[in-house]
Design brief:
With 123 residues, the chain is mostly helical. A three-stranded antiparallel β-sheet has the order 1-2-3. The longest helix has 105 residues. The radius of gyration is 49 Å and the shape is rod-shaped.
Length: 123
């Protein structure tokens, strides 16, 4: 009877080991399935985020390119104002510049003495 009991105990251990192996395999398969699901969800989130960022980029690109025309117009206007300011400044000092040039052109330098057409001279 001892032998039969021993056989029965071994059989119970083998059955318990097989059941434990099935539980471990089921847990492993569930873990792999969950990892696969998590990977798919992460890829989906990344794709959505990428699409959102691309849409934001395209929107900002369209907004800034629209501003580009406004910037060009603003810069053209600023340039015209600067040109007008320079013309006014040139008109204001042109008489003085012409007088200075005439004085330099009509003066004669001789031995470090400058003779001027009005009869004056200076060293």
């Amino acid at each position: 009877m001892d032998s039969s009991r021993h056989q029965n105990g071994i059989q119970l251990l083998l059955t318990a080991e097989q059941e434990a192996q099935q539980i471990v395999n089921a847990a492993r398969n569930a873990k792999l399935a969950r990892l696969k699901q998590a990977k798919e969800e992460a890829e989906k989130e990344v794709a959505e985020f990428r699409a959102q960022m691309e849409a934001n980029y395209q929107r900002e690109l369209a907004e800034t390119s629209g501003d580009s025309g406004a910037n060009v117009k603003r810069l053209e206007k600023e340039t015209e104002v600067k040109i007008e300011q320079l013309k006014m400044e040139a008109d204001r000092i042109s008489h003085d510049v012409v007088d200075m040039l005439l004085k330099l052109v009509t003066s004669v330098r001789y031995n470090n003495i400058i003779l001027q057409p009005n009869g004056g001279c200076y060293a």
